[in-house]
Task: structure prediction
Amino acid sequence: MVQTEKPEKIILGVDPGTRFMGWGIVRKTGKNLEIMDMGVLKLNSVANPWQKLETIYNEISTILMKYTPDEMAIEGPFYGEDAQAMLKLGRAQGAAIIAAIKRSVPVFEYQPLRIKQAVTGNGRSSKEQVAGMVMALLKLKEMPEKLDITDALAVAICHANQDGKTVSKGKKGNSWDQFLKENPGRIR
Result:
């Protein structure tokens, strides 16, 4: 009997932010998840908003080159009443997405409620509850310095548990790669 290797996938999870942007690299082998690395981009000292976007692009590009993930999963915007904050967050998310697209890494977006549901079973969980489950699922011995990191790992876990099922019934998928295929010429 020939044994086949378990399929392996490396996922970069990103929790976008304009002050702190969490990231985490998770390796999925079969049903097992293993953390490869994690960190946070500290952007609060970059005053110029355009330099902040450049920093995000450059730092995410460096992470992508170092770990060569198969896919990137990113948290979608949280809809609030502060339009300016949402705009800034969308720009930060966009800078990270473009870094992945430029390296032909498929990007998948998940809403905060779905991420929390996937990790804790409750879409209304607190950041601390998400962090606790992430620590348990990935067998982390110490709490990371920022909850932005555990949020990013939660995004990666959420994506890893989709098992390729990123299309909802009756709706188009949430892959940026799919969006580009369905909208040729929209992004140059």
Observations:
- The first helix runs from residue 49 to 67.
- The chain is about 45% helix and 20% strand.
- Residues 167-173 have pLDDT under 50 and may be disordered.
